[in-house]
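Dissemination and training. As part of the outreach component of the grant, students in the summer workshop were shown how a complex can be specified as a set of sequence lines and then modelled as a single object. The example used during the hands-on session is reproduced here so that future cohorts can follow it. Participants entered these lines:
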Amino acid sequence: MNFLRNPVAVKELRSRMRGGRAFAVLTIYLALMSGLVLIVYLAFSAASNNNFGPSSRQAGKAVFAAVLTIQVFLVIFIGPAFTSATISGEKDRQTYDLLRTTLLPARSLVIGKLISALAYVFLLIIVSIPLQSIAFLLGGITFTELFLSQVLIIISAISYALIGFYYSTVMRSTLAASVATFASALLLTMGGPFLAGILATLMGTFLFGSSMPSWSMQALLIYGGILLAATNLPATIIISEVFLLEEDTLFYWTNVIDGHTVFILSPWYLYAIFYALLGLILYWACVRQIKKVSTR
Amino acid sequence: MSNIITIQALTKRYGQLTALDNLTLDVEEGAVVGFIGPNGAGKTTTMRILTTLLSPSSGEASVAGYSVTEEPQGVRGSIGYMPDFFGVYEDMKVWEYLDFFAACYNVQETVRHGMIGDLLDLVDLGHKRDEYVENLSRGMKQRLCLARTLTHDPKVLILDEPASGLDPRARIEMRELLRELKNMGKTIFFSSHILSEIADVCTHIAILEAGRLVAYGDMAEMKKQLRPHRLFIVRILGDTKVIQETLVETDKVLGIVPVQETDPESRTVRFEFTGDDREVSLLLATLVKKEVPIISFAQESNDLEDVFMHVTRGIVH
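and obtained this result:
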């Protein structure tokens, strides 16, 4: 599929990059990102003057984490903000009917809109790579960590963008679509940890009391926790990083509980599978919604 | 000529409201059909069904041999649609706007450049090629939208109030465009509230009221059915006694309707006449011989307003 031949993608990209606005946003974004990296670096520099202060490797990790945090914010909130106005915006502008009476297939419309929304998000991510490379200079970051983080970012960007897109196709107004999109993004980001916290409290207080749960219950809790974490990007990144650093493993590690070996999966590929499936389902739903002929 | 649009028992209900009630009509290829009716009559509903934007409650419709419900892509490739209210992409240039829609209609890239130039010349927007769409006037945007409907050279144009909101000059320009498209062999199905515009351009008219088709046919035939005989209107100075007496004595005069003018010096007499042109000429000569002070003597044509008022009852949903 030649994306440059998608008329919607060409039109939207042309409009988005026209004039000084896009470059102004890019400049401001880079300036803020640079400022943040500088603050983190200076803080670690000042602390490392102390004999017991952090090493340059730790400073590198901190810089990497700062840039990654911005990227996570971008894909969870900014990307969907672009897509939540895609179809509802066309309806508001009264251009949707003009599009629907052309020969443009529904899937081309979806893909074209996605490309244009994601292209700008990815542009913002790509321009922050030089800043992220400072982490390599300082050390403390491996290629595996970089690769893993960017895979998760890309999958998240597409899935979260599709969440916004889906609401844009089913809601009547851009405002309603935007509200629903942000609510969903918040639920996926905060809902998991919130639920985990409640469950942990409940189980600790009511289920187990003072006695240690059985090995199977412990294993179940661990698997449940990993699964819950695998729905949440920040939690996935942190736990996968811990697996890499502490256990030097990318996919799973083994733990022995009461003499029983338990395989504990790293959440990153569970996250990738879950959000890839979610993305596919949402894509199918968006195409179906656009194909539907109105009854009103 | 074969029928390019066929509508069979088309019905559309919104809950208790029947917006379209058993509409049946066929449109010949090459015809220009004026679709008229009061607001809420069902014109836009019909057009949205024909353009695959709305599904009917029952009935069938096809355009260029493609069913609107079963083969929507075939219909879309055969029509150019201009809705009543439409938006434009403000941050695009005029040529980009047409290029985008041409691409949406799978027009080859190699062909588009020349085609866009031709279309802009047709709608008299060639000098605005590199202008942003947001800088165009209302009339220019309307012409641009009309050009957009032609990018893929469709057989049928479905236009919902194409002259809506335009100033008189722009209306005339739009009418000229429609005439040109008619001469290019396009089948045009358009709605308008301005009956004079429809009368100027159309070959057929369809009158809708409260979701029902109350009249459809060839325009000349419909006017003839409404008033089968010729109507003449004569303006004279002074009293109408002599002219009335003369007309009463003439065989081919069916009826006389004297009309009071605001000017007390002139009088108007209208009469129905069944004779041919030679007999009209003889009648005029007789009146002149009797020294009837004639200011004007002309045949009054039946206009569409007469037809519309005759067949509709003023029912609005």
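The CA atoms of residues 6 and 62 of chain B lie 5 Å apart. Students were then asked to discuss how this feature might be tested experimentally.
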